[in-house]
Specification:
heterodimer; A: alpha/beta; Aldehyde Dehydrogenase, Chain A, domain 1; Aldehyde Dehydrogenase, Chain A, domain 2; 7-stranded mixed β-sheet; 15 helices; B: TIM Barrel; 8-stranded parallel β-sheet; 12 helices; 8 strands
Chain lengths: 486, 308
């Protein structure tokens, strides 16, 4: 047992603010739709503001595309597909995709800063994770474009046509890359709708696509709200819908495409289990718990939001976890030392706070470290709920914020049963020093991605996707190519 | 004011029942410390703190009283053209040089640390090691940097290593004991953790990474692993143990990364030379160069910093 130690008064050494400069970014006041290689005004004439969630200031105005705009975009994509892109040899397509990747790399800093401004995620993550990974997706799929017959031997390689792609606000640029790169590599053309709260990096990507000289209509970016997305899903001349987002919207999409020839892949919500055994490398596991749930403010579909700790080490793990949380810096996402940035939107903050209230009402013990939070902007301190039962709502529903529920278990069978006892099945983490136990669990956990002694690791070569209500279809790797071929 | 620990209990196997260490995870954690951006005031504060934590070291067969005398002068006159700088924490020398160093440093506040126990290999009989240590203490050493028998440790003779540390601790008297694990020879982080736990239980006031004679020496991965051992012991007992990475830390940047790591793992209480030291011979001048750069905006050539 830990002895109470008297607090020793010592002068503290604090990090001075270290803000990433915003002087090098170029943002227009107003963005139109990118259709057929041109910037066009929305038919409705309507624009909406996108704000910086860290200080609630408006960043730019963005066009609200409607069904007519979507129709224009689909027609442009169809024409580009029929006349240019589907006929172009893979080696030529690859050149364009490589060019996009390289241009993105050259402007990586600008992308990172804009992503942080628009989404509230920390500059450390957008600089070290989002942007490099997005570039890597383009590089990776560019490499496959002229080797598809080797990727799928004895299969006739045929692209699908026009892909309608709808992406979420948690990894705006990265999700655009996940969607666009494999579609282009396999010879499809694209109509993509970014999320309404985070459209800017997709629009910057459109600028780069333009600069790369991609034939007009191959990639079209139509910004807007849910109705814009619905117009894409409902459009009769789209061959494939790729959606990443909430399970609720995913279900609507599946209903809407039922009875049509459209192919669909859905990458939806999750409530993933992160499982710590008593022989785990405990300090690294604690770090993995932190990365699992607090990475990107917990706005991660595969976040390790349900922690299972073996009962005999639970007390120590929780103590260590609390200590580690005390060292996390919450605040301005542009500060290079910030660990947890801003919640993406006012609405999402309200949702998270709703669940925090539910957790308290359910009688779970809550812990939040003392941290200073900026007065303006949307912030939520990292939060733990202890003594949570499998039947608690906060352990069942996706919160999509920096909120972790902690349950204990006694045996391997028990934890497998509890980890699988959820409508979701996106990811899981297993922490143990025993190799055989890792393999035992990875075969029995029903989740699309399982990490052993690590968490939230992504790579373009590795397929990603879910079981059950977490969706179907895989993105990344060869599986990601296959989803864009007949 | 320096605290030394009273000698501790007998060896038991629980002392080396250390948690598993995942190397990949440790590397990732360390990389996070390295992305911390230390600017302006906090950088200057960190640099001055680094200077005050240095154990200025000369451990060579060719050491002479003359060489030691010069280094001792440097220890409390780091850069006299720039007032307001601290002195280093200590000088670190062979036992035969302790008396000279002691005489040179008198009331400067700079401590004299002596290596002992047949440094660096530790391959000598126990009585020789005890004699070696007693000699250094009698000559006036304030701190003893002993090496453990790595051969015995790797052969699994933990109780031997425990007894060895405990008996050296006994002859240290009021001198603080730093236990050098020579992590470069222990090879795995699991071993580093086990040896750290063993040394702490056996009575170490400080645990120290390396002799400086073996590569790799004080990597951040190794230091992190040792800091976690200190943290776990503190959480359990409330007793603070000091940490000294030695060997390979020659730039200000690396020193600041180490300080970030100490702050985030152990907290501000360890951020002073009572609990944290750098064993280094060339770090001081690089830190001085950075301090003067941050005050004047100009890098000066190394010719403007004395080599002693």
């Amino acid at each position: 047992m830990a002895k109470k130690v008297e607090k020793i008064e010592v002068p503290s050494w604090d990090y001075a603010p270290s803000l990433e400069s915003t002087s090098h970014i170029e943002l227009k006041e107003r963005y139109d739709l990118y259709i057929d290689g041109k910037w066009v005004k929305p038919t409705s004439g309507k624009y909406f503001a996108t704000v910086n969630p860290a200080n609630e200031q408006k960043l730019a105005e963005v066009a609200h595309g409607n069904a007519l705009d979507v129709d224009k975009a689909v027609k442009a994509a169809r024409k580009a597909y029929n006349e240019v892109w589907s006929k172009m040899p893979g080696s030529e397509r690859a050149k364009y995709i490589y060019r996009i990747a390289r241009l993105m790399q050259e402007r990586a800093r600008e992308f990172a800063v804009i992503e942080t401004l628009d989404a509230g995620k920390t500059i450390r993550e957008s600089r070290d994770v989002d942007v490099p990974l997005a570039c890597n997706h383009f590089f990776y799929y560019a490499g496959w474009a002229d080797k598809l017959e080797y990727a799928f031997p004895n299969r006739k390689i045929e692209s699908l046509g026009v892909a309608g792609q709808i992406i979420p606000w948690n990894f705006p640029l990265l999700m655009a890359a996940w969607k666009i790169a494999p579609a282009l590599a396999t010879g499809n053309t694209v109509v993509l709708k970014p999320a309404e709260t985070t459209p800017l990096t997709a629009l910057k990507l459109a600028e780069i696509i333009d600069e790369a000289g991609l034939p007009p209509g191959v990639v079209n970016i139509v910004t807007g709200y849910g109705d814009t997305g619905a117009s894409i899903v409902d459009h009769a001349d789209i061959d494939k819908i790729a959606f990443t987002g909430s399970t609720g919207v995913g279900k609507l999409i599946q209903k809407a495409v039922a009875g049509t020839p459209k192919k669909v892949t859905l990458e939806l919500g999750g409530k993933s289990a992160n499982i710590i055994f008593d022989d785990a490398p405990i300090d690294q596991a604690v770090e993995g718990i932190v990365n699992g749930i607090f990475f990107n403010q917990g706005h991660v579909c595969c976040a390790g939001s349900r922690l299972f700790v073996q009962e005999n080490i639970a007390e120590r793990v929780v103590q260590k976890l609390k200590q580690r949380m005390e060292t996390l810096y919450v605040g301005n996402p542009l500060d290079k030392n910030t660990d947890i940035g801003a919640i993406n939107s006012k609405e999402q903050l309200a949702t998270i706070n709703k669940y925090i209230k539910i957790g308290q009402k359910e009688g779970a013990e809550m812990y939040q470290p003392v941290c200073s939070i900026p007065s303006k902007g949307y912030y939520c301190p990292p939060t733990l709920f202890l003594n949570v039962a499998q039947s608690s709502l906060i352990a069942q529903e996706e919160i999509f914020g920096p909120v972790l529920t902690i349950q204990t278990f006694r045996t391997v069978d028990e934890v497998i049963q509890k980890a699988n006892n959820t409508p979701f099945g996106l990811a899981a983490g297993v922490w143990t020093d025993k190799g055989s136990r890792i393999f035992n669990l990875t075969t029995k956990l029903r989740a699309g991605v399982i990490w052993a002694n690590t968490y939230n690791k992504f790579d373009p070569t590795s397929p990603f996707g879910g079981y059950k209500e977490s969706g179907f279809g895989r993105e990344g790797g060869l599986h990601g190519l296959s989803a864009y071929l007949k | 004011m320096s605290q030394t620990r009273k000698t501790i209990s007998k060896f038991n196997l629980q002392m080396v029942d250390s948690p598993a260490i995942d190397k990949v995870g440790v590397e990732e954690r360390v990389a996070r410390f390295q992305t911390r951006s230390i600017k302006n005031e906090s950088k200057l504060q960190g640099l001055k703190m680094s200077l005050s934590m240095i154990d200025l070291t000369t451990l060579e067969g060719k050491d002479t009283p003359g060489k030691v005398k010069q280094m001792c002068y440097k220890a409390h006159h780091l850069c006299d053209t720039h007032p307001g700088l601290p002195t280093v924490a200590a000088v670190c020398v062979y036992p035969s040089m302790v008396a000279f160093a002691k005489k040179e440093l008198k009331d400067s506040g700079v401590k004299v640390a002596s290596v002992s126990t047949a440094f660096p290999s530790g391959q000598a009989p126990m009585d020789v090691k005890l004699l070696d240590t007693r000699f250094a203490v009698d000559e006036g050493a304030d701190e003893i940097d002993m090496v453990i028998s790595r051969g015995k440790f790797l052969a699994g003779e933990y109780s031997f290593v425990f007894d060895e540390i405990a008996s050296i601790k006994e002859v240290c008297g009021n001198a603080r004991l730093k236990v050098i694990l020579e992590t470069g020879e222990l090879a795995t982080l699991d071993n580093v953790r086990k040896a750290s736990d063993l040394a702490i239980h056996a009575g170490a006031d400080f645990i120290k990474t390396s002799t400086g004679k073996i590569q790799p020496a004080a990597t951040m991965q190794v230091t992190y692993t040792m800091l976690m051992a200190i943290k776990d012991y503190f959480d359990k007992t409330g007793i603070m143990i000091g940490m000294k990475p030695a060997g390979g830390i020659s730039t200000s940047k690396l020193a600041l990364h180490n300080l970030v790591m100490v702050k985030e793992v152990l907290g501000d209480a360890w951020l002073n030379n009572e609990w944290f030291r750098f064993g280094a011979s060339s770090l001081a001048n690089d830190v001085l160069m950075q301090i003067i750069k941050s005050e004047t905006g100009i890098y000066q050539s190394s010719d403007y910093f004395s080599i002693d």
